[in-house]
Design brief:
Layout: H1 2-11, E1 42-51, E2 57-59, H2 65-79, E3 84-86, E4 95-100, E5 108-112, E6 116-121, H3 124-137, E7 145-153, E8 159-165, H4 173-183, E9 190-194, E10 196-197, E11 200-201, H5 210-213, H6 232-243, E12 248-252, H7 260-265, H8 294-310, E13 315-317, H9 328-344, E14 348-352, E15 365-368, H10 376-383, E16 387-390, H11 393-396, H12 418-422, E17 438-445, H13 453-460, H14 463-472, H15 478-495
Parallel strand pairs: 2-3, 2-4, 4-6, 8-9, 8-17, 9-12, 13-14, 14-15, 15-16, 16-17
Antiparallel strand pairs: 1-7, 5-6, 5-7, 10-11
Helix pairs in contact: 2-3, 4-6, 8-9
The chain binds acetamide.
């Protein structure tokens, strides 16, 4: 709906607004080849250009048809043209060709010449990445001329993620899909869903049905606003929707802390067997599973088993943060039993960096969310084999306010303007955590203050693009980034995405 409106608006612009040279045959491209976010590895402009017309065809083998469909969708959104998909280009056709080759899965090469565009990659994920680049090279207004030359591109880190908290305020499947649509345009390839916390439980678990009938009921969540949960069918549908955009869903059940909602539903999960009152405030660190009770491990195993069965992706996130109501000895004992359970169901365990207190974390992935540049416990775990995903809260937390005047968000980790989100290096950020131990970056978005998709978009954009570039591009260049970001702004406006107009950026349009 928003997209159709944008197309109408663009078409409604009087022709006199189009610069005269752009109407000529050899019109200059409106978007420079090097203007892409995240910045590609190598860009070689050659002064030619390609014009997309209604007769342009998409050429793709059957194996690349899912990517071709996304390309057709994107071109229709941008231009209004419904391009045909064919297996072989007719002679002299104007064509956008998806060409599988032998390069790595996410790597791609995009060549734009007078007669067409070719995207080559060894994998559909790479072809999809090339399509996202092409989308940014299409101008916002006709004529649809793409700058000529070659882009050779590959990610610095395999894992580029965002996180979304459905527990503090529930966000509907349609809102999550809108977020996936946006993040995938910046080559973000993981979506971590925070599905349980003190205030609510947001995923159907058949063996413990009160988790959602009570923990996901109307009125659960911060301020008692909202409520809701994902049925298994809705979750599977989200997994499919994300996969079609080369985004892997990573589900999180937070434990042994952040479990008040589960204990309200099942009092046997407390040590005294008494149900605590439901919570709708934003305090943390007061709840804990009962580490000495066997029912705790039956519960945890049932949840992990059902979640693993629903999740084709390789990771299950088991939380582990802020377990202030669990003694350290109990915490380690809990993790020593629970971390291996994830492996039992065929998945790799992922948890907040506190899990590195447990030796069993040496085969797991730790998500670094602290604000310091040193963490001896993490460094020791890394030396023993733990891999790390970087989410330092003072750089990557999208729920931190931009500045003191930001209406939404929190500020316990500081204010994060765009440059703060951009100017850091995951490969050197924490002492004793070398780049070889870093799988990538993730930008968490906690929902204590966020209710709607508009709230999500305002906090995520534009900062998420900074984190996306930190995760994808081989190096950072603030001046280049701020120029490219300023030029990108009108694209969000055209799609109806209400981004934060950071004063650090000279916004076009
Ligand atoms: C966290 O922000 N508690 C991981």
């Amino acid at each position: 709906m928003r997209n159709r409106l944008a197309v109408l608006l663009v078409c409604a612009l009087p022709l006199t607004l189009v610069p005269a040279p752009a109407l000529a045959g050899g019109a200059p491209p409106a978007v420079a080849l090097g203007s892409v976010i995240p910045a590609p590895v190598e860009v070689r402009a050659d002064g030619t250009s390609f014009r997309v017309t209604p007769r342009t065809v998409v050429v793709a083998p059957a194996s690349a048809r899912p990517v071709a469909d996304r390309l057709v969708e994107a071109v229709r959104e941008a231009t209004g043209y419904r391009l045909a998909v064919v297996r072989h280009a007719p002679r002299h056709a104007s064509a956008i060709t998806l060409a599988p080759d032998r390069s790595g899965g996410e790597d791609y090469q995009l060549s734009v010449g007078r007669k067409g565009v070719t995207i080559r990659s060894g994998g559909n994920s790479g072809l999809f990445n090339g399509v996202q680049t092409l989308r940014q090279l299409l101008p916002l207004e006709a004529p649809w001329i793409v700058a000529g030359g070659t882009i050779v591109d590959r990610p610095r880190f395999a894992y580029r993620g965002v996180h979304l908290d459905l527990a503090r305020h529930y966000h509907t499947p349609d809102e999550v899909k809108q977020y996936i649509d946006e993040i995938s345009q910046f080559k973000v390839n993981h979506l971590h869903l925070h599905l349980s916390d003190d205030q609510g439980w947001r995923i159907q678990i058949d063996s413990w049905p009160r988790l959602t009938s009570v923990g996901g009921a109307a009125g659960t969540g911060v301020d008692g606003v909202g409520g809701g949960f994902l049925t298994k069918a809705q979750y599977r549908d989200l997994v499919r929707y994300a996969a079609a955009r080369f985004v892997t869903i990573v589900p999180e059940i937070d434990m042994p802390g952040h479990v008040n909602a589960a204990q309200v539903a099942y009092p046997e999960l407390t040590c005294d067997g008494v149900a605590p009152p439901p919570r709708t405030d934003t305090a943390v660190g007061y709840s804990s599973l009962c580490i000495g009770k066997e029912v705790t491990y039956q519960f945890v195993e049932d949840v992990i088993r059902e979640l693993a069965a629903l999740t084709p992706g390789p990771l299950i996130h088991i939380g582990g943060d802020e377990a202030h109501a669990t003694s350290q000895a109990d915490y380690v004992a809990f993790q020593q039993r629970v971390l291996p359970l994830v492996g039992k169901y065929g998945k790799k365990a992922y948890g907040w960096n506190e899990i590195t207190q447990a030796p069993a974390s040496h085969t797991a992935i730790a998500q670094y969310w602290n604000t310091g540049r040193t963490d001896p416990t993490l460094a020791a775990a890394v030396a023993a084999g733990t891999k790390v995903i970087m989410s330092p809260a003072n750089r990557a937390y999208l729920d931190m306010k931009y500045d003191p005047s930001t209406r939404l968000g929190l500020s316990w980790a500081g204010y994060i303007e765009v440059r703060t989100a951009y100017d850091w290096d995951p490969g050197t950020h924490v002492a004793g955590v070398p780049e070889s131990a870093v799988l990538g970056v993730e930008a968490p978005l906690w929902s204590e203050t966020l209710r709607s998709i508009e709230d999500i978009e305002f906090m995520a954009f534009p900062r998420l693009t900074a984190i996306a570039e930190v995760g994808w591009s081989p190096s950072r260049d603030w001046e280049s980034f701020r120029t490219r970001l300023g030029a990108y702004g009108p694209r969000w406006t055209a799609r109806g995405v209400g981004f934060y107009p950071s004063p650090q950026i000279d916004w076009a349009g």
